[in-house]
Specification:
Layout (H helix, E strand, L loop, with lengths): L7 H10 L7 H35 L1
Length: about 60
């Protein structure tokens, strides 16, 4: 799963609208990689917590 504003063109169009310097493609890819890792880590922790909560509820 990949969460982002969209492809590089969309991101740079958005930044242009805000009058902000554009992001180079390789830097954008690095940021997407880091964001993807963080999202995966958080979603795994959330899924684990949900599973534990469901188990505990079932055992009551």
């Amino acid at each position: 799963m990949k969460d982002s504003l969209g492809r590089q063109v969309k991101v740079n169009s958005f930044l242009t609208t805000l009058n902000i310097t554009l992001i180079a493609n390789r830097n954008l890819k690095k940021m997407e990689t880091h964001a993807g890792e963080a999202i995966k880590k958080i979603s795994t922790a959330s899924s684990n917590k949900a599973a534990i909560d469901a188990y505990e509820k079932e055992m009551e």
